[in-house]
Design goal:
- The chain is mainly alpha-helical.
- It folds into 2 domains: 1-78; 94-175, no CATH class.
- The protein has helices at 2-77, 94-108, 112-120, 126-136, 148-159, 164-175.
- The radius of gyration is 39 Å and the shape is elongated.
Length: 176
């Protein structure tokens, strides 16, 4: 009898160990699922957002291509008048010349990084001398070091009359 009882106890222990193992596996499985479900949801949301962003980028590229096509067609038909030269005389306003040159450059499609050097080819007299001195002040005396914005600022600072508002008012008063 004792042997039968021991055998039954061993079977009970194995059965409860098996149940405990199965319960443990179920517990682990439910815990893994509980923790991974939000991550799967986040991944799905990120994939949806990524797809939306790809669609937007694609739409922007199409819009840019259409705009570029239009500009190419327009550029082929419209020719801008070349700007006049600028000599830096007191009677000439650097703001007006710069504005006209900038419009020409925009229509002609001149890249910003080459505008200063191109504009310099339209300078003569005092303005050409000013440009030469500006280039000589740069590192390696290289005109490529002068940005379009710096060109504009320096040109206007150099040639805009200090009392331009007073001169404009005086000219207006003379017209009356």
């Amino acid at each position: 009898m004792h042997i039968v009882a021991m055998s039954e106890v061993n079977m009970d222990n194995q059965s409860s160990a098996t149940m405990n193992l199965e319960q443990l596996q179920q517990l682990i499985s439910s815990q893994v699922q509980q923790h991974t479900t939000p991550l799967h949801n986040q991944v799905r949301d990120l994939e949806n957002t990524n797809q939306q962003l790809r669609t937007l980028v694609s739409q922007l590229q199409v819009g840019q291509n259409i705009g570029q096509q239009y500009n190419n067609e327009l550029g082929g038909r419209v020719k801008a008048a070349k700007p006049k030269t600028y000599n830096g005389s007191i009677a000439s306003d650097p703001d007006v010349w710069w504005f006209q040159f900038n419009q020409y450059s925009d229509i002609a499609g001149v890249p910003i990084n080459t505008r200063a050097k191109l504009a310099a080819t339209y300078l003569e007299g005092k303005a050409a001398t000013w440009w030469r001195n500006l280039v000589m002040q740069t590192v390696d005396h290289n005109a490529d070091n002068i940005t379009w914005q710096a060109f504009q600022n320096e040109l206007i600072n150099m040639f805009k009359p200090v009392n331009s508002k007073k001169i404009a008012r005086d000219k207006l008063a003379v017209l009356k």
